[in-house]
Amino acid sequence: MATVESGVATGVSFGLTDEQRELRALAREFAEKEIRPRAAECDEGQIHATDIIAKAHEVGLMNVHLPVALGGLELPCFDGILVAEELNWGCSGIGTSIGANGLAAGPILIAGSKEQQRQWLGPLIEAPVLGCFGLTEPGAGSDVSGIQTTAVRKGDDYVINGSKMFISNAGHASFMVCFASTDLGAGSKGLSAFVVPMDTEGLVVERHLDKMGQRSTDTSAVAFSDVVVPAANRLGAEGDGFKIAMQTLDFTRPATAVGAVGVAQAAFELSVEYTRERVQFGLPIAMNQGVSFLVADMATEIEAARLLCWQAAWMIDQGRGRKATKYSSFAKRFSADTAMKVTTDAVQVFGGYGYMKEYPVEKLMRDAKLFQIYEGTSQIQRLVIAKEIYLP
Ligand SMILES: Cc1cc2nc3c(=O)[nH]c(=O)nc-3n(C[C@H](O)[C@H](O)[C@H](O)COP(=O)(O)OP(=O)(O)OC[C@H]3O[C@@H](n4cnc5c(N)ncnc54)[C@H](O)[C@@H]3O)c2cc1C
Questions:
Q1: 11, 188, 233, 328: which could form a disulfide with 2 (CB 3.0–4.6 Å)?
Q2: Which residue has the least CA distance to atom 35 on ligand 1?
Q3: Minimum CA distance residue for ligand 1 atom 41
Q4: Ligand 1 in reach of 375 Cβ (< 6 A)
């Protein structure tokens, strides 16, 4: 019988190969030993975990999709999400810092020339270098056609002016893939993508933003004033920016979605342990169906979310185009909403202790919320799904 990993469309199996099981075990061990012990401290102090990121790079848990030709592992999307779930199980703030390189590398993999890939992605393989993805602006979030940052051609260069908002890792990145308009009147069709080194004159990381959850990942506002980049840094043609951004998000959404599964799984495991141990009315609270049914629903919904992520990643690996887009949105919407529900219920089963910072579930609830917002809100995922249903 064909297996998920074989990609042969004659049957279905949910078995992983030995290599995939080993990869997942490596990621779980890393999350357990390196990430979890530091999660609370990094959350409290909004600490960007440079040392943990460097270790993840050293053991091969970063940038796993980058091509063999550049020295990378070129793992399929499916294998990548096995890693992403475990890192986010450890801490989704640190997991996001590690995973955001996928967003930065995506446009270069999709639209970059061989030379551009060597120049910008090669360093990511050699060292724990970070990139960032600059799409969102103060006035353009869900609707990126409203982007107001401009890139004006001047001879062999472009001059970029404008501002970007909520950019993950911007304060620690060596480059940004910046989406700017080369034709403001053309809306999304006027967007183009540029790789901009973060030390370029006129580019300023203005503010590290103080967040509710995933606090150890840096989220910054960035300003561009007369930032000059060579035309050679443009990815694809003028006007290709929107397509490049959307294709990137299609590829990264299953990994983001499965991050939510990792957070939910952590909350579920803690809930099982706690409800076994906590005694009220002379019995462990798990003996009450009012409690154990909450936990049963957690387990069911987490499994459903994980399977949607697996299916979306598998479709991407099969090159299923627009069908993969719909499944990526299924996965992102359902996993994010599941993580929010599961972590809220986890706080509930922990009672008053769940609401205290001393216990880990309040962090998980704060962390889960972000999955319903970044890389397309849950409403925008529904918009994508509805479009695929009514305008296939
Ligand atoms: C911590 C964090 C990290 C991020 N990292 C990055 C990054 O690295 N790079 C990057 O480019 N961006 C990043 N983002 C931006 C993120 O993708 C946006 O915040 C998100 O797309 C929503 O945009 P917005 O915040 O402007 O909200 P808005 O678009 O203003 O939406 C506000 C509300 O209206 C709803 N809404 C909007 N339009 C519709 C509609 N048509 N139908 C129904 N509901 C609608 C939304 O769902 C939402 O609930 C990050 C955001 C956060 C919070």
A1: 11
A2: 379
A3: 380
A4: yes
Q: State mean pLDDT over 272-283.
A: 98
CATH 1.10.540.10 fits 18-129, yes or no: yes
Query: 164: CA distance to ligand 1 center in Å?
Result: 13
pLDDT value, residue 3: 40
* Protein fold of 242-390: Butyryl-CoA Dehydrogenase, subunit A; domain 3 (1.20.140)
322 has a pLDDT exceeding 90 = no
Residues in CB range of 315: below 8 A, 6 or more apart: 323, 324, 327, 328
10 band by pLDDT with thresholds 50, 70 and 90: low
* Pocket lining: 149 vs ligand 1, CB cutoff 6 Å: no
Task: Take atom 4 of ligand 1 and give the residue whose Cα is closest.
Answer: 166
The fold of the 132-239 domain, in CATH, is: Butyryl-CoA Dehydrogenase, subunit A; domain 2 (2.40.110)
Report the pLDDT averaged over residues 267-272: 98
Question: Ligand 1 within 6 A of 166 CB?
Answer: yes
Outline where the chain has alpha helix (H). 18-30, 36-45, 50-58, 77-90, 92-111, 114-126, 241-277, 289-317, 321-349, 361-371, 378-390
